[in-house]
Specification:
This protein has about 290 residues and is of the alpha/beta class. The protein has eight helices and 13 strands. A six-stranded mixed sheet has the order 10-9-8-11-13-12, with helices on both faces.
Length: about 290
């Protein structure tokens, strides 16, 4: 039975990309009974009635999934932030990094508009920090075309979603990658990257040898599903040394002989990262319980 990847879901139809092209499929009736909802990005086996139509027979196990946008089996999230206009926001970047890593998606940090800075020292220090934590970081100028050429090797062979700071040029980058997207560049709201996107569905578009989600990014930046004891796992520089804390289960706030707090005091871990960690911890602690 042939296999493929769902690249679009619309009005009850699933468009499955396989080696033989795209087949428009319906889900089996048993899916609804078993509460199975195929997602864009799912690997499925399907039975083709002809060259263009068929039925999805089975949905393979997912390696990850996002709720908003509803998409599965993402290899990476390209987090687009600007060095200037708007100013770089490490707090917002750290929020995205935690959410992406908690979803088991690999983040790549992409900084745009570096050429608009008069003094690059501060942004260079941030980038050096994030590379030392273990993240891939690329810097682009405000020239979109030049940026695209740097992005292409990262996109090739991967399934990617773009997300990040508002007003940084995510839509412009995607439009240059694939003009057919025709994303509106002025309709991303200023509040947490929530997009007034013109399309009502998520679609994977073939770009530069990979698949890119046609979506303006995440519509929720809350730490849903992340528990207090898990948060440090998503700060790699803390996760690496947390085993040296005196107490097992240390959450690096008030505990004595905490290796993380010692590393902050010795400036091995930047203070701004620890401040963001404490801020996120307060949000998680203050979350209303759901019954």
């Amino acid at each position: 039975m042939p296999e493929g990847k769902i690249i679009k879901a619309l009005s009850g139809f699933y468009y499955v990309l396989s080696d033989d092209g795209i087949v428009q499929c319906r889900g089996r009736g048993v899916f609804r009974i078993n509460n199975i909802s195929p997602l864009v990005g799912d690997i499925v086996s399907f039975q083709a009635e002809n060259d263009k139509e068929g039925y999805i027979m089975d949905v393979k196990e997912r390696k990850n999934e996002l709720v908003r946008p509803p998409i599965a089996n993402i290899d990476q999230a390209i987090l687009v932030f600007s060095a200037s206009e708007p100013a770089f926001s490490p707090a917002l970047l750290d929020r995205f990094l935690v959410i992406v890593e908690a979803a088991n998606v690999m983040p790549i940090i992409c900084i745009t508009k570096k050429d608009l800075l008069e003094d690059e020292q501060e942004i260079n220090q941030y980038m050096e920090d994030y590379r030392s934590f273990g993240y891939d970081v690329m810097m682009l100028s405000s020239t979109t075309r030049e940026g695209i050429e740097q992005l292409k090797p990262f996109i090739n062979g991967k399934t990617s979603v773009f997300a990040g700071q508002s007003g940084v040029g995510k839509s412009s980058l995607l439009n240059v990658l694939n003009p057919e997207l025709n994303l509106k560049t002025d309709e991303i709201s200023t509040h947490l990257g929530r997009g007034k996107h013109t399309t009502r569905h998520v679609e994977l578009i073939e770009i530069a040898g990979g698949l890119v989600a046609d979506t303006p990014g995440f519509s929720s930046l809350e730490f849903t599903g992340i528990e207090e004891e898990d948060l440090a796992h998503y700060f790699p520089e803390m996760s690496r040394i947390s085993g040296k804390c005196k107490f097992r289960g240390c959450i690096h706030i008030n505990e004595p002989k905490c290796a993380v707090k010692s590393s902050v005091e010795s400036e091995e871990i930047p203070l701004y990262r620890y401040d963001h960690y404490k801020q996120f911890m307060e949000e998680i602690k203050g979350r209303k319980p759901r019954y």
